[in-house]
């Protein structure tokens, strides 16, 4: 397996067509999904030469936690869809690779089991449920298990219509459950319905689509963990995030799975970086598939890049080993891109390295 694309092809051969479509798919016409890749491809690197690159280092720290590279796993629901062990395999993989793992609220293994399998930093992602007490309980369990931050996903007041899932009648298989939440809050995720996927239907029932900036204080008062907002695509919202006490933002269009016409994450990144101006963490996800993509988003000012689907492909193809290989491959490719562009240290990766011609 020499590149991420090989893991993608291998995964397609392993997964059922319905699960494959759920993972690969986006909302609407899948234009935001395509835009993420197009934006990264449009950027080109302006390499510098005759720099001593005999010692390159990709190592960094994120919110105080050491990482082998500025690389993390984006939150994704139900890792058991890709391999039987699910999130404990991903935690083992992330630990081996020195990457950060963001665990989805809809993880299919318990927070405690995931923490036991982990040897690197863990964050917990939340959707704001109408049942607020469930959020407080999850936040407390995460803190007790050693998770280091909460990531509130703010681009999904409800799950968007994803045509592939409507067509396939996607629902979460009965033996794969969001085990960290009370079963009563999750039952509709498993029930097939006409005209909408089960997860879209579930989100309309269970997500609180009325929350606003003013509600963030309620959550912050109930947890000691730093709060990161995922799904910020504008300077305006980045400024509001800071004003409301966020420790960071994830620049993301949800891998093209929410607002179909949303701006590509790499295109939104510069304005968010400028608005944040070093006062908080800026992470980014969406379409990152090569070491060069990592170099590009770091050059635009991201502190951390996150990958979603490639980790599912690694899990599907080879469980914990496959997922670790995906993360290691991206780290090695970043090391190579740094060497070949004359940037032995992460601090040398600046916007001067990028052109969109
Ligand atoms: C199968 C799947 C499940 C996802 N589940 C969640 C989730 O539970 N919470 C969340 O905030 N984002 C979720 N996402 C979005 C990812 O966190 C991330 O934004 C996106 O996948 C990144 O793009 P990439 O897959 O192109 O790397 C999911 C994405 C996929 C593909
Ligand atoms: O967030 C998502 O993209 C996603 O696929 C999902 C999965 C389960 C429940 C809610 C959203």
TrEMBL record:
Pfam families: FMN_dh
One MF term in the entry's GO annotations: FMN binding
Binding annotation for FMN: 75-77, 104, 125, 153, 230, 252, 285-289, 308-309
Keyword Metal-binding attributed: no
Endpoints of the signal sequence: none
Family according to the record: Belongs to the FMN-dependent alpha-hydroxy acid dehydrogenase family.
PANTHER family: 2-HYDROXYACID OXIDASE 1, S -2-HYDROXY-ACID OXIDASE-RELATED
Protein name listed in UniProt: 4-hydroxymandelate oxidase
Species, as recorded: Kitasatospora viridis
């Amino acid at each position: 397996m020499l590149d991420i694309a090989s893991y993608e092809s291998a995964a397609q051969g392993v997964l059922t067509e319905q699960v494959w479509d759920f993972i690969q798919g986006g909302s609407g016409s899948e234009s935001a999904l395509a835009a993420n890749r197009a934006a990264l491809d449009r950027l080109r690197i302006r390499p510098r030469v005759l720099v001593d690159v005999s010692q390159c280092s990709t190592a960094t720290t994120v919110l105080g936690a050491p990482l082998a590279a500025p690389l993390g796993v984006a939150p994704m629901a139900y890792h058991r869809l890709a391999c039987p062990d699910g999130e404990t395999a991903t935690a083992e993989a992330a630990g081996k690779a020195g990457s950060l793992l963001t665990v989805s609220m809809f993880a299919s293994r318990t927070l405690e089991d995931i923490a036991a399998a982990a040897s690197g930093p863990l964050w917990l992602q939340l959707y704001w449920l109408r049942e607020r007490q469930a959020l407080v309980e999850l936040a407390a369990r995460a803190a007790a298990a050693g998770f280091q931050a909460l990531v509130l996903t703010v681009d999904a007041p409800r799950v968007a219509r994803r045509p592939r899932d409507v067509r396939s009648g996607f629902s979460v298989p009965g033996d794969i459950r969001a085990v960290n939440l009370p079963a009563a809050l999750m039952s509709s995720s498993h029930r097939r319905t006409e005209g909408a996927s089960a997860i879209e239907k579930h989100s309309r029932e269970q997500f609180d689509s009325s929350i606003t900036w003013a509600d963030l204080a309620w959550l912050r008062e109930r947890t000691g963990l730093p709060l990161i907002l995922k799904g910020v695509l504008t300077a305006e919202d980045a400024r509001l995030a800071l004003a409301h006490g966020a420790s960071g933002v994830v620049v993301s269009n949800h891998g093209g799975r929410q607002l179909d016409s949303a701006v590509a994450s790499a295109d939104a990144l510069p304005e968010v970086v400028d608005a944040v101006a070093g006062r908080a963490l800026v992470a980014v996800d969406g379409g990152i598939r090569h070491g060069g993509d990592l170099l590009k988003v770091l050059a635009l000012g991201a502190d951390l890049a996150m990958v979603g689907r490639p980790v599912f492909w690694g899990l599907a193809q080879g469980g914990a080993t496959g997922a670790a290989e995906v993360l290691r491959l991206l780290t090695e490719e970043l090391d190579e891109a740094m060497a070949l562009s004359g940037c032995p240290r992460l601090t040398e990766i600046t916007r001067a390295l990028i052109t969109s011609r």
